[in-house]
Amino acid sequence: MAKKIGVTMEVGNDGVAVITISNPPVNSLASPIISGLKEKFHAANQRSDVKAIVLTGNGGRFSGGFDINVFQQVHKTGDISLMPEVSIDLVCNLMEDSRKPLVAAVEGLALGGGLELAMACHARVAAPKAQLGLPELTLGVIPGFGGTQRLPRLVGLAKATDMILLSKSITSEEGQKLGLVDALVPSGGLLSTSRKWALDIADGHTAKALVHVFFAQRATSKVPNVTDAGLKPRPMKKVAVIGGGLMGSGIATALLLSNTRVVLKEVNPEYLQKGLKSVEANLKSLVSRGKLTQDKAGKALSLLKGVLDYAEFKDVDMVIEAVIENIQLKQKIFKEIEEICPPHCILASNTSTIDLNVIGEKTNSKDSIVGAHFFSPAHIMTLLEIVRTENTSAQVILDLMALGKAIKKVPVVVGNCIGFAVNRTFFPYTQGAHMLVNLGVDLFRVDSVITSFGMPLGPLQLGDLAGHGIGMAVKDIYAKAYGDRIFRSPLTELLLKSGRNGKINGRGYYIYEKGSKPKPDPSVLSVVEESRKLTNIMPGGKPISVTDKEIVEMILFPVVNEACRVLDEGVVIRASDLDVASVLGMSFPSYRGGIVFWADTVGPKYIYERLKRLSETYGGFFKPSRYLEERAMNGMLLSEPKASRSRM
Ligand SMILES: CCCCCCCCCCCCC[C@H](O)CC(=O)SCCNC(=O)CCNC(=O)[C@H](O)C(C)(C)COP(=O)(O)OP(=O)(O)OC[C@H]1O[C@@H](n2cnc3c(N)ncnc32)[C@H](O)[C@@H]1OP(=O)(O)O
Fold first, then answer.
1. What is 6-203's CATH topology?
2. What range(s) does the 3-hydroxyacyl-CoA dehydrogenase C-terminal domain occupy (predicted)?
3. pLDDT tens across 583-621, in order?
4. What angle do CA 625, 626, 628 make, to 5 degrees?
5. Helices 548-568 and 604-618, interaxial angle, to 10°?
6. Beta strands in 445-509 (DSSP E)
7. CB of 133 closer than 6 A to ligand 1?
8. If 185 and its partner were Cys, which of 21, 24, 452, 575 is the partner (CB 3.0–4.6 Å)?
9. Choosing from 107, 136, 338, 562, which is the catalytic residue?
10. Above 0.85 for ipTM, yes or no?
11. Residue by residue, what is the 3-state secondary structure of 248-282?
């Protein structure tokens, strides 16, 4: 059958024109294709029923680039006029300068001129494992459709030079990390997501969301009765960190990098050495990644002192406790440091879950107690949750805000509750995934759909990363605090019983081997089957059938629901603080504006109705909160401030 060569355009009811290149087997950019593209882009920009445009390739490949046969003809005839005018007429005037947003939906491969066309689009959505490259030098020509200019702007000069001069391709996964790909979605959702992206750009959503995050991040610096009380932050010249584990060594590293003297205390020489080595390794890693010079790393290390007792605590300005989540141990430490440290010393805990009033129970100086909740890895992640109790003084909060900024963090002041703001809002994230898996949905599909939404890790892989032992340790604390809406899943316990602690021991839902990407572990499915038998929630014993959209809703709408309770209880000063915390603490996609901003774009009423129906089918885990119901019924946005001020 004669192969179909040409360019088609279909305009959907959503106002998106999908322009498709068809020239099997690689959709090479032959002359008919180039003239077809010019015609279709011109038409799309003229049509009043077209709001946005998606460019894609037929047959599972975007385009293998300019038609190499033309080069052969030019070699034979010397007739350079055979080379079509592309760079200006098509690439610049009709694509990059298109009045309507243009999104490339890339699958399979985009090479040479193919990738150059994709880079002229305003955004790029790609399926996994697509091959992206500019291999022109292997043909003795340079990328001639603007790739030498656009690629460096997207991935940086060093990477672009590498790709062009060595004709090195990358995958769409690496492209996402570098900024060449804006979103990675399974092939099945490529066109729909690309259409949504194109419409979002047309409606200004994507830009609106990013602008919102920009201003929201700056708004976190305004804390009523703290930053407007005429107080001055006190200098934190010497800080003690208790506990040299993953968090403690990360916190110590962050402090050293801001030229703060650090005393790192451990319980025995072995642990102390381990902690000091971790700090050294953190600094070395920053140097090897070009983020820190060798001499600055040496200077930072010179400010670190390891100790096994409190002798060095007599003149510290702040102590940050970062030991295991054990209430009795923390209470003991706080009692000890209160006796040793100077009166002005701030007593901070890096606890991620435990109530600060409980930690400080055996102390008298309640006004000096504060939470300094870092996110792992503490020397990399920028969010610092400053957790205040009803007794924490404004001065202490201001001091910790100033220190947070000095160590290049974004401090967000939050109230004292189990999980504070981020962990509290996102505890349904994992639980929703567990429910879906126990309802028979494939766990690897759940992770894939959620990463396609824009989260860096699916909920199950996140559990692997955090470690299932930690998950077990905090499970009862959350059940006690929020029992009415907890989904009790035996999955974590069964994983641990089967020796799957997570990335920490190389096995969880995925297999973790040094130097390679996590691989789904099919052998974990027997553990999943056991969990399904124990929970026995599959209707009629059969797995439920859900769409990708339903998976996103069943996992993220309960998160929105919990965010509503966080807003309702005034755990955050303003809704946008929670947006910032979700983006910086959970890597919620910034182009969606943060958890509350995104929920308002979806619509509180729609979310409320979906949760209500889900709760009727699956129980209290989905029960809409009072705040969500009120806002949905009154046509209000979730981000609108409450009449009464926050409790802080
Ligand atoms: C010399 C003239 C001077 C003129 C002045 C110069 C001015 C500067 C240049 C201006 C224009 C530049 C525009 C652009 O920047 C340049 C380009 O895009 S050059 C092309 C870049 N692309 C490539 O190099 C990719 C080459 N192809 C491959 O790597 C592989 O084919 C593939 C795409 C990875 C697919 O691999 P496979 O699946 O293994 O399939 P095959 O390799 O067997 O190929 C199948 C079939 O397709 C044919 N084919 C592949 N790519 C092209 C192509 N780009 N053009 C035409 N035909 C292509 C291949 O020959 C096979 O054909 P078959 O054998 O089945 O007939």
1. 2-enoyl-CoA Hydratase; Chain A, domain 1 (3.90.226)
2. 419-512
3. 999 999 888 999 999 999 999 999 999 999 999 999 999
4. 65
5. 110
6. none
7. no
8. 452
9. 136
10. yes
11. HHHHHHHHHCCCCEEEEECCCHHHHHHHHHHHHHH
